From TrEMBL, chain A:
This is F-actin-capping protein subunit alpha. Keywords: Actin capping, Actin-binding. Pfam families: F-actin_cap_A (PF01267). PROSITE patterns: F_ACTIN_CAPPING_A_1, F_ACTIN_CAPPING_A_2. GO terms for biological process: actin cytoskeleton organization; barbed-end actin filament capping. One of its GO terms (molecular function) is actin filament binding. Belongs to the F-actin-capping protein alpha subunit family. Coiled coil: none annotated. Heterodimer of an alpha and a beta subunit. The keyword Repeat does not apply.
UniProtKB/TrEMBL annotation, chain B:
It comes from the Eukaryota. SUPFAM superfamilies: Subunits of heterodimeric actin filament capping protein Capz. It comes from Glonium stellatum. The lineage of its organism: Eukaryota, Fungi, Dikarya, Ascomycota, Pezizomycotina. Component of the F-actin capping complex, composed of a heterodimer of an alpha and a beta subunit. This is F-actin-capping protein subunit beta.
Length: 273, 269
């Protein structure tokens, strides 16, 4: 089996929120535990966890912290600003270990700390459960702001995740990012909601943390309202246009008389139009 | 650890991965585990392909049940497109083909009444104690340049003949894909499939009764499934988003709830 198997990487990449271990288990069974093929999954796991903003509770910690490309220290280690620690993350099992104290060195440290404070006010007001990360990136020229909220209910056959990512450039006040929602429902079926909304806001270059947090709150509220409306318009639009609930006569078909339905009706019968 | 059947694992995987990619994922699984190919192609429903019947000029739907190698039988002409190499390809017996023609006419009416467009195809085949078949329906729409949708229904059934009645077993899958793309919303894709089964005994006078019985069962099933899809796609999915993030501030919601509880408690006193 080739070590960079595109099929396996693609399976891992599209694992629904909270179901990576189930997907891995199924892959193992299909491959009859072929160890070389499983070994080849390591890069896919790493990519998945970083893209999905996987969260993990540190040994001895109480809050779940984020794993992402923006707080990676390399060699499978990541850091968390609030708890001032770094940790090793096992991408296959999604477990953390080898926690060490880690003091962030950044010329933006004050802004980062105020952003964490302002944004946590917003996240606790709008996410029942979420993790927040604020990290300096690109040699301190920009700040990455991440929020991830996951809720898993496998007993009821659904799982969901909301991800927000913003890149704030203190130099010019630009705040750009994306909001992504991923919902999986799989009782007697498999239904998936996947969304991606780019966000772009311009703030004054002197904008402080609470102004940034305010813009984020506005963008997210607006998006959630638009998304709720979109459910309604898809239901009333495309869904209704696909299949009627009942024929225009508002009566079910009389199947014994079905041959008579042809009379006086122009039925196209799947001819191309 | 007890070993899990690889086919069950493959089906479990397909129940989890993005349903929009089901065709690609089935192809991948067949590459990884060639021994599962036949069973996967039989048991996994993928969006229906459309072919044109050369003889009648009408479109028909393709699935594993009208396939012979790389050719598919048209329900309108009873001929394979393209013609099957080395031989004729399997066609139903005369009695079953007559019923198949009637069923195709009937579901053509059904399709027009419920879908007001789209394509339908019915295929029947002989069984030792009766017959079996599938009813396929497909429609795609784009009500605005920014949104689109497609519906594929795949109803597979068998009918076991008994004295004056028949026992019908129906397994129905609906694949529903909806998407929208706009500046306000970004991209939104809501896609998937749902499966339901039902068994029923119904009176049979002649072969015409079979067509009517199957028609009723499929009609009832699609009504039920349409309601279910509505509930899951526009109710459940939206509720989960609301569970992840709350538009009103949670402190206010919690305060309102506490007030409500207090009121209820005080009324009970």
């Amino acid at each position: 089996m080739p070590s960079n198997n595109p099929a396996l990487a693609s399976f891992v990449e599209s694992a629904p929120p909270g179901e990576l271990l189930d997907v891995t288990k199924a892959i193992k069974s299909i491959l009859a535990d072929d160890p070389s093929a499983l070994q080849s999954l390591t890069p896919a796991f790493e990519k998945y966890n970083e893209e999905q903003f996987a969260t993990v509770k540190l040994p001895g910690g109480s809050e779940e912290v984020i794993v992402s490309p923006h707080n990676s220290l390399g060699d499978g280690r990541y850091y968390d600003v609030a708890s001032q620690s770094s940790f090793a993350f096992d991408h296959a099992t999604q477990k953390a270990s080898a926690v060490q104290s880690y003091v962030l060195e950044s010329s933006r440290l004050d802004l980062i700390k105020s952003l964490l404070k302002s944004l946590s006010l917003h996240t606790t007001e709008h996410y029942p459960k979420s993790s927040l990360g604020v990290y300096p990136i690109e040699n301190d020229s920009k700040i990455a702001i991440l929020t991830v909220a996951s809720k898993y209910s496998p007993n009821n056959f659904w799982n969901g995740r909301w991800r927000s990512l913003y890149i704030f450039s203190p130099g010019n006040g630009s705040l750009a990012g994306s909001l992504k929602v991923d919902v999986h429902y799989y009782e007697d079926g498999n239904v998936r909601l996947l969304t991606d909304k780019p966000v772009s806001v311009s703030l004054p270059s002197s904008a402080n943390a609470s102004e940034v947090a305010k813009q984020i709150a506005i963008a997210e509220r607006k998006y959630q309202e638009d998304l709720n409306k979109a459910f309604g318009s898809l239901s009333e639009g495309a869904f209704k246009a696909l299949r009627r609930q009942l024929p225009i006569t508002r009566q079910k078909i009389e199947w014994e008389k079905i041959s008579g339905y042809r009379l006086g009706q122009d039925i196209g019968g799947g001819r191309s139009r | 650890m007890a070993s899990v059947d690889p086919l069950d694992s493959a089906l479990d995987l397909l129940r989890r991965l993005n349903p929009k990619d089901v065709k690609k994922n089935v192809d991948y699984l067949c590459q990884l585990a060639p021994s599962l190919t036949e069973e996967l192609l039989e048991s996994v429903d993928i969006p229906l392909a459309v072919k044109r019947c050369t003889k009648t000029g009408r479109d028909f739907l393709c699935c594993d049940y009208n396939r012979d190698g790389d050719s598919w039988r048209s329900p309108w002409s009873n001929e394979f497109e393209p013609p099957v190499e080395d031989g004729e390809g399997v066609v139903p017996s005369d009695r079953i083909r007559k019923m198949e023609i009637k069923a195709n006419e009937a579901f053509d009416v059904y399709r027009e009444l419920y879908f007001e467009g789209g394509i339908s195809s019915v295929y029947l085949w002989d069984m030792d104690d009766g017959f079996a078949g599938c009813v396929l329906l497909k429609k795609s729409v784009s009500p605005s340049p920014k949104s689109s949708g497609s519906w594929d229904s795949i109803h597979v059934f068998d009918a076991q003949d008994r004295a004056r009645t028949a026992h019908y077993k129906l397994t129905s899958t609906v694949i529903l894909s909806l998407g929208t793309d706009s500046e306000n919303l970004g991209t939104m894709d809501l896609s998937g499939n749902m499966v339901r089964q039902v068994e029923q005994d119904m009176a049979v006078e002649d072969d015409g009764s079979h067509v009517a019985n199957i028609g009723k069962m499929v009609e009832d099933m699609e009504l039920k499934m349409r309601n279910l899809l509505q509930e899951v796609y526009f109710g459940k999915a939206k509720d989960v988003v609301g569970d992840l993030r709350s538009i009103p501030a949670l402190s206010e919601t919690n305060r309102d709830r506490a007030t409500q509880r207090e009121m209820i408690n005080s009324m009970g006193r």
